Amino acid sequence: MSKEKIINKLLKYFYGIDGVLDEYKKSQLNKFGNIGFIILCWYLLISSFIALILYAQNLQTAFNFLIIGNMVIFFAAMLLSSLFLRQKKLTIVDADKTDYPKMKKKYAIKSIILGVYFGVAMLFLDALDNLVTGNGNFLTALTSLSNIGLTAVEGLSFGFIMYLLFRSRLKK
Question: What stretches pass through the bilayer (predicted)?
Fold first, then answer.
């Protein structure tokens, strides 16, 4: 597989683009990526300087500033990329009447897989959290019926939300 094909697959996977990645979509993604890179470079420069000043006063304050700041920037970047993709209509999938049921079924299966993956990941992360914080045993947390039930509900909810998202992208 060539380097160009790998990059295209990564772009399509990361941004959630189905179908062909044409030149227009690729140029819009490059434009968004360049702007994002510039903003993140400035953020790193400024936040590092502020953290250095805070470190001189209190290590815990500097640590909290960096953790909370990075989380805010991460979620802001995800929100902005989602809005950008929706505004530029890069994730819209045009399906004719014959392909529409097939695409609906494809998205239903994809949503089920994502929901199961999310539920299992949350179960393991909860058990790992219990292990790290000392609140319980790893295996007990994995086999607890309340944890399994909770993560099943989380997985179903996530899968349903993803199905609604996929369906909103599908146009006849």
Answer: 35-56, 62-86, 107-125, 145-166
Question: 93 by DSSP, 3-state: which?
Answer: strand
Q: Where are the domains of the chain?
A: 1-91, 93-172
pLDDT at 159: 96
Regions in the chain scoring below 70 on pLDDT: none
Residue 170 contacts residue 107 (beta carbons within 8 Å): yes
Q: Taking Cα atoms as reference points, which of 26, 65, 27 lies closest to residue 43? A: 65
Alpha-carbon distance values, 51 to 8, 74, 87 (Å): 37, 18, 35
Residues 88, 24 contacting (CB under 8 angstroms): no
Burial class (CB in 10 A: 0-12, 13-18, 19+), 80: middle
Contact 78, 118 (CB under 8 A): no
Q: What is the pLDDT of residue 155?
A: 96
Predicted TM-score (pTM) above 0.70 = yes
CB 8 within 8 A of CB 20: no
List own/partner pairs for 58-64 with CB under 8 A and 24 or more apart.
none
Q: Is the dihedral of CA 138, 143, 146, 150 positive or negative?
A: positive
The pLDDT, as a whole number, for residue 20 is 83
